[in-house]
Amino acid sequence: MNAALNTEYTIYFAGGLFDHKELIGNAILASYINKLSKEKYRCILPQDLEQSTNRAVDIRNQDLSCLLACDLAIFNFDGTELDSGTVVEFLYAKTLDIPAIIIRSDFRGSGDQSREGDPWNLMASFYPRTRKLEFNSMEWYQREVNALSNDQNIFDTADRLYRKIANSVIAELDIVVQDPPLLSTDQGQVFSLYEWASVFPGSGLKEIVPSINDIIISKKNKGLID
C-alpha cells in the first residue's frame, strides 16, 4: 500500500436506520470517527443522503452507488438477526474488494457458528480485507458510568463511551487500509468488475453511478487498488 500519510478516505457507514436509537447512534459514532481521526476518515451515512424520490428502487440505487464510490465501509452487525439490507451491502462491498470493518456491540449470541466463531451466520464471515470490532456494549457503558462522579451527567458518559468506540474503530481502519488489494488495474480487471457491479443490480443503477474511471483512479492513488 503506497498512500500518502495525509490521505483521506470516504467510508460508507451501513447499519439499521429504522428507529431513533439507530439513527442517532449512527450519526454520533460517525461524527466521533470523523473528529478523532482529524478527518482522515469521513463517514457517509445513508440516512443523510438526500432522496430525490420516495421510490424504493431509487433509495436502493442511491445507496449502492454511494457504496461503490466509497473507499472503505463500516457495517453494524448487531442484533440476533442481522439487518438484511446491511448484509446485502456487505456482500456488494466484498465483491468490489472494498476494505471493511464489522462492528458488533451486541452481547447476545446468535448465528450458526461454533462458540469460537462469529456470532452471526457463517455466510457473512471469512472475507478478506475485513476487520472485526466486537465488544460488550453493556459492559463498556457501565464502566463509563461508574468512572464518572455524581455531578456528571449522561452526556459525559456518552462522550466517553463514543470516544472509546470511535478510537477502537479508527485503530481497526488503520490496519485494514494496509491490507493488500486483491484487484489490479492490469488488463482492465477492475474496470470490468466495477462496470458489472453497476449493471447487474439493474433497475437504473448504472445511470446514476459516477464515472467509474474516476472512482478507480482515486482508489488506486490511495493504494486501495493495485
TrEMBL record:
Query: What PANTHER family does the record point to?
Result: 2'-DEOXYNUCLEOSIDE 5'-PHOSPHATE N-HYDROLASE 1
Q: Which GO terms describe its molecular function?
A: 5-hydroxymethyl-dUMP N-hydrolase activity
Q: Which Gene3D superfamilies match?
A: 3.40.50.450
Entry's Gene Ontology cellular component terms:
nucleus
List the GO biological process terms.
deoxyribonucleoside monophosphate catabolic process
User: Per its UniProt record, what Pfam families does this chain match?
Assistant: Nuc_deoxyrib_tr
The regions listed as transmembrane in this protein's record are: none
Q: What is this protein called?
A: Nucleoside 2-deoxyribosyltransferase
Q: Which residues form the signal peptide?
A: none
